[in-house]
């Protein structure tokens, strides 16, 4: 039986390098097929999408100017000597369609999929390009700068290879684009890059302006769009009856004609003045034409932007599916910001599934666990930025088995959105810590303690004590502040486990062999009595352990409570016991101390009140030089 041919891989972005663009002084992002970008607000996620659009977006060149002062890092577009500072964005494309690769072969370079780099650099041997993993890659570069001669900002996408040798007499000699050929719009269209800014869909995305979704559909359909504009303009000009026939407007036209005739010669024709629905130009029609819709159970049509935000976003997505169908086997590189905006969870999942199935490459930014859980964790990139340097961190290969990632999808999605992660050894500990944080806040009369959810800390259930070490490197790679919470092990940690535990920001090891021992030793008997009285009504109460009958000693009460906790380990009974505490003194000291440590390490910046005093959220948060506002924190920080 003949082997089936390998499926053709879609055209994809493999690497993006940025210099001096927006808040990014420099940075590199590696893409492996579909990619999910996660990170705090102002980390640089939208900047990445905007950078891709500058290089690949066929309609971006219509914007004038294509870049402006605020697109340069720190607003610096001239150096101290008055020379231009350049925005440079480099993109590497892989899996070019056969026809595209054949026509652009001289513009491509050999790329090693294993090494993740070009193999024709200085010092390379000819045989380096013959490896089984070597493919042809197309390097492109966008250069933006301020042109003093034109007093304008300009920007162009170029083929980054080959570079033609220029003499010193050439006007572009020494400039970063010297010797490069432009990458024309026709080839950008072949790349199929579409960027949907979800927060900005609104008016423009569903208008007919250049680059809008409706314009893209018209362009891809290519069914007489030129004559469409001419026909529409003619109909507006010959509107019968004309707008000016409205009696009130006729009076105004007469007055204008009579009074203007005293100063300016007007035509004697009746239509020397008139009112029309637009400027009667293609560009003005693109701006003013509106899509009208009639919603379900309504008998009145309204402009699309008067519908609810969710309905508008759903409409936008419906048009995207049409665009995908129009392109057929011509793959789409599709970038989208926050598909969760104004959409319920099931719609978020449905949209994400559609994108991953139907787009050649989906590059998505999101804060939603419903979006995140649809991605393979190896395709997640944690974006961060410090002092202008953009970092894109992925999960190292082999750290966590794929089966573990799939099993923990929802937990992982929530942890990825968090500022910090507590890895608890099991379900009992995870639920207990969450309950203890809630109770600490409720019982703290000083109002100084800030609970885990308000400081953006997620509690992750590792499943067992032996699984705690491996999650340290995993979450560390995603730039999370990590805390381990586990019991004293029966056997000493192995060397590998110890090394992984050392990757935690704070590795807490209880002085007890189990959570039940901790609670029995540190929670007062009165709390255990209240717990047993409450637990006996629970349908999962282990009836074979017996009940309190009254008159038992404190030791007997604690012993029974411990037996019940062990029998129902993982059922939330430990959390139930914590919830019976009525004062902070009744809470277990070990758990309180751990929560206080986490709260101190993850504290948010102080907020000044109206009297100038610090707010409740004490902390030592740092504001990087690129942070526009010291109060600009991740949504996860406050939700």
TrEMBL record:
One of its GO terms (molecular function) is endonuclease activity. Residues 610-639 have a biased composition (Acidic residues). Residues 14-63, 249-372 form the Endonuclease GajA/Old nuclease/RecF-like AAA domain. Pfam families: AAA_15. It comes from the Bacteria. Residues 605-639 are annotated as: Disordered. The keyword Phosphoprotein does not apply. The keyword Hydrolase applies. Keywords: Endonuclease, Hydrolase, Nuclease. Coiled coil: none annotated. PANTHER family: ATP/GTP PHOSPHATASE (PTHR43581), ATP_GTP PHOSPHATASE (PTHR43581:SF4). This is Putative ATP-dependent endonuclease of the OLD family.
């Amino acid at each position: 039986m003949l082997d089936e041919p390998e499926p053709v891989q879609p055209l994809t972005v493999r690497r993006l390098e940025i210099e001096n663009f927006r808040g990014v002084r420099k940075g590199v992002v590696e893409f492996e097929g579909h990619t999910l970008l996660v990170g705090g607000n102002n980390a640089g996620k939208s900047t990445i999408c905007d950078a891709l659009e500058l290089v690949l977006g066929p309609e971006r060149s219509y914007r004038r100017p294509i870049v402006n002062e605020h697109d340069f890092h720190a607003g610096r577009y001239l150096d101290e000597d008055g020379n231009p500072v350049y925005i440079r964005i480099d993109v590497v494309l892989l899996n070019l369609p056969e026809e595209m690769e054949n026509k652009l072969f001289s513009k491509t370079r050999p790329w090693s999929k294993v090494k993740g780099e070009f193999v024709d650099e200085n010092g390379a041997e000819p045989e380096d390009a013959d490896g089984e993993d070597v493919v042809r890659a197309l390097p492109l570069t966008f250069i933006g700068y301020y042109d003093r001669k034109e007093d304008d900002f300009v920007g162009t996408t170029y083929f980054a290879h080959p570079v033609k040798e220029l003499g010193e007499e050439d006007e572009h000699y020494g400039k970063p684009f010297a010797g490069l050929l432009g990458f024309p719009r026709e080839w950008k269209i072949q790349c199929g890059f579409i960027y949907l800014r979800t927060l900005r869909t609104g008016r423009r995305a569903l208008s007919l302006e250049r680059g809008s979704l409706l314009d893209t559909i018209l362009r891809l359909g290519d069914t007489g769009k030129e004559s469409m504009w001419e026909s529409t303009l003619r109909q507006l000009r010959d509107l019968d009856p004309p707008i000016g026939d409205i009696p009130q407007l006729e009076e105004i036209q007469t007055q204008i004609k009579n009074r203007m005739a005293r100063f300016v010669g007007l035509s004697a024709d009746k239509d020397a003045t008139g009112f029309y629905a637009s400027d009667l130009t293609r560009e003005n029609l693109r701006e003013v034409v509106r899509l009208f819709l009639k919603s379900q159970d309504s008998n009145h049509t309204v402009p699309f932007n008067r519908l609810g935000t969710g309905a508008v976003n759903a409409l936008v997505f419906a048009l995207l599916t049409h665009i995908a169908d129009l392109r057929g086997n011509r793959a789409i590189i599709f970038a989208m910001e926050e598909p969760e905006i104004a959409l319920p969870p099931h719609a978020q999942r449905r949209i994400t599934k559609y994108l991953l199935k139907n787009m050649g490459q989906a590059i998505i930014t999101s804060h939603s666990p419903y979006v995140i859980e649809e991605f393979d964790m190896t395709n997640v990139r944690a974006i961060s930025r410090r002092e202008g340097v953009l970092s894109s961190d992925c999960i190292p290969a082999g750290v966590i088995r794929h089966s573990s990632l799939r099993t923990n999808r929802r937990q992982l999605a929530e942890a990825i959105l968090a500022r910090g992660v507590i890895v608890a050894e099991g379900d009992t500990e995870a639920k207990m810590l969450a309950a203890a944080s809630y109770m600490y806040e409720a019982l703290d009369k000083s109002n100084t303690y800030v609970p885990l959810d308000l400081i953006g800390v997620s509690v992750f259930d590792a499943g067992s004590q032996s699984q705690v070490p491996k999650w340290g490197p995993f979450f560390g790679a995603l730039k999370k502040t990590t805390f381990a919470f586990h019991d004293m092990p029966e056997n000493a940690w192995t060397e590998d486990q110890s090394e992984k535990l050392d990757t935690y920001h704070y590795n807490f090891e209880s002085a007890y062999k189990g959570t039940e021992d901790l609670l029995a030793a540190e929670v007062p008997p009165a709390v255990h009595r209240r717990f047993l009285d409450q637990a006996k009504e629970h349908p999962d109460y282990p009836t074979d352990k017996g009940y309190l009958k009254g008159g038992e000693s404190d030791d007997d009460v604690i012993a029974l409570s411990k037996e019940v906790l062990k029998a129902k380990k993982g059922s939330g009974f430990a959390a139930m016991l914590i919830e019976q505490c009525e004062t902070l003194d009744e809470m277990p000291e070990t758990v309180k101390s751990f929560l206080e440590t986490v709260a101190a390490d993850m504290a948010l910046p102080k907020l000044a009140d109206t009297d100038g005093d610090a707010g409740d959220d004490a902390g030592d948060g740092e504001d990087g030089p690129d942070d526009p506002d010291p109060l600009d924190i991740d949504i996860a920080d406050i939700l």
